[in-house]
Fold this sequence. Notes:
The protein is mainly beta and 94 residues long. The chain has one domain (2-92). Helix content is 0%, strand content 50%. It contains no helices and seven strands.
Amino acid sequence: MPDNLALDKNGNLYITxxxxxxxxxxxxxxIWVAVAPSGGSNHxxxxxVVRFASLTDCNAEPGIYFDRSGSTLYVHAQHxxxxxxxxxxxxxxx
Length: 94
């Protein structure tokens, strides 16, 4: 169930997935990357789609966005009910 989308500076599409509806499944949410097609055109199907990261907190829902340069991905995990366990992580590098 895709929820949030973000583009990096190379045209790769990052997609977050809502966690499983039942926390008892032990499965959190995933972040996927649809790699931009080669050849300089971003108007075709993705070259590949791969899982980039997994959020193991089954009670959190991720959101994502890039900074203006498109080189740092921010991932935030928010919890229902404002329990004070929300977190934000910056991911940068190659």
